[in-house]
Specification:
Blueprint (H helix, E strand, L loop, with lengths): L1 H21 L4 H11 L20 H6 L5 H9 L12 H13 L3
Length: about 100
């Protein structure tokens, strides 16, 4: 019985870790994507100012402890401000999220 419970617990841990790994993204690719798609409105790097003062900077988003991968995905996916139609793939969105979250460090 204990072996079965240990195997089951190990399987749950592996499955729980899989989505996080799949959604981790690449921060460097995310920064390049942000330069192309987001910098028209957002300040995307420390020390920069955005062209639109009312638009949140990536640093402000990163500093907000309530911002999660899910909330950032929703923000990026849903049209906001005068954003052009979304052309990023799911993997590219993961990359941009990884870049934003990398600004927390």
């Amino acid at each position: 019985m204990k072996q079965t419970m240990h195997r089951w617990a190990a399987a749950v841990l592996v499955l729980a870790a899989a989505p996080a790994a799949a959604q981790s993204g690449d921060a460097e690719r995310g920064r390049a994507l942000a330069e192309r798609h987001c910098a028209k409105c957002h300040a995307i790097a420390p020390g920069r100012t955005g062209p639109e003062p009312a638009v949140p900077s990536f640093m402000r988003m990163a500093a907000d402890p309530e911002q999660t991968r899910g909330s950032l995905r929703q923000f990026i996916t849903l049209p906001h401000y005068e954003m052009e139609p979304q052309t990023l793939t799911s993997a590219e969105i993961d990359d941009v999220i990884a870049y934003i979250l990398s600004l927390r460090r």
